[in-house]
Specification:
6-stranded mixed sheet; alpha/beta; TIM Barrel
């Protein structure tokens, strides 16, 4: 009898999950994005925004605080149907879907993603990732400018300047992604200049170290109209290389640079970076699992300058729920007045220059 009751409860839970998912927006009809033709370009942003607004509104009506993931690098092998259910289960409204060129010059993955599922993905340009960005940065920036302009992407991807190997890469024995590309190089100037002229935001990965702060300050001052999202607020993988960056420093940067934004991705409070054996998520209070008060106050004082992010890639999709939970913990650390701004409204306003 107990087994029958358990099975009934599980069946009801599954039915409820599927019912909610169907209410948010349709589940894609294809699992493989490359089974369909790429979305036509320039993207029909008016129709896409209508879909996205409806999805966000439906989530809010059902008591869910929607999340927009402003930064993830995903490839063409994503199971679109399964992942749509996962997104709905976790209340993730939209993901800025950035492709990975993998030596091809450009991937068009975002066009496939939007064609299969026009409800859940914001088309985002390929990020500045190896090998394309590292091998020939000027060519990659010029390709980016062409594709962003002609295809109508509302967001460029994440460009890696100083980047240490990620934890999952270290665990796989891949230490090659130790990138050290000057942000004030000719390619960096080209990227900042294009954003300033086009009004299209782009993302940077720049490790937090004393020696790397003056160059980014110089670039922000030289291109005040460039819309820059600095990825991974307060992620410090080697603490002894930083004596400057903290809430007061970030506050000063925000006050001086009206077009500087930050994404809030971080690993969980107990995560240790394998190479340094340190806790990189410096905004966490590990005793509570929430933000330290000084970081929470900074975000609450400038909520329109901070956005949720999941930093997904093809190797860590199994950690999706955990990553969402970490961003929910960030939101729960903020006053009620700031939560929805940081969760989705700030991203929408930055990308589309309108409130939602």
């Amino acid at each position: 009898m107990r087994l029958i009751k358990t099975l009934l409860l599980l069946s009801l839970a599954l039915f409820f999950r599927l019912a909610i998912a169907g209410d948010f927006s349709p589940i894609p009809s294809a699992s493989r994005m490359t089974d369909v033709s790429k979305a036509t370009v320039p993207f029909d942003l008016a129709t896409l925004k209508s879909n996205w607004r409806q999805r966000i509104t439906t989530m809010r009506a059902q008591g869910v605080v929607p999340i927009i993931d402003i930064e993830s690098n995903l490839g063409e092998d994503l199971d679109m149907q399964s992942f749509a259910h996962q997104m709905d289960d976790e209340g993730v409204a939209l993901i800025a879907f950035s492709g990975i060129a993998k030596g091809r010059g450009w991937s068009d993955a975002a066009r496939y993603a939007v064609a299969v599922d026009p409800w859940r993905y914001i088309p985002t340009g390929d990020g500045g990732l190896p090998p394309d960005w590292k091998k020939n940065p000027m060519t990659f920036v010029r390709t980016t400018k062409e594709r962003i302009t002609l295809d109508g992407y509302p967001l460029m991807g994440e460009y890696e300047f100083r980047h240490y190997p990620s934890p999952d890469q270290i665990q796989r024995g891949n230490n090659e992604r130790d990138e050290n590309f000057p942000i004030d190089s000719p390619a960096g100037h080209e990227l900042f200049r294009f954003s300033a002229e086009s009004d299209i935001p782009f993302q940077i990965h720049q490790e937090i170290e004393d020696a790397l702060l003056p160059p980014i300050e110089k670039m922000l001052a030289q291109y005040p109209k460039a819309k820059v999202i600095w990825c991974h607020l307060a992620q410090m993988r080697y603490q002894d290389r930083n004596t400057i960056y903290g809430p007061d420093y970030v506050r000063k940067l925000i006050e001086q640079n009206p077009n500087l934004y930050f994404d809030l991705f971080s690993g969980p409070p107990d995560h240790i970076y394998p190479s340094s054996k340190e806790y990189p998520g410096k905004y966490w209070d590990r005793s509570t699992g929430k933000l330290k008060p000084e970081w929470a106050k900074l975000i609450a004082d400038f909520p329109w300058r901070f956005m949720t992010a999941l930093d997904l890639n093809t190797f860590i999709m199994g950690s999706f729920s955990k990553k969402v939970n970490m961003q929910r913990a960030v939101l729960d650390s903020l006053p009620q007045s700031a939560r929805e701004i940081v969760a989705y409204r700030a991203a929408w306003k930055l990308l589309f220059n309108e409130d939602i």
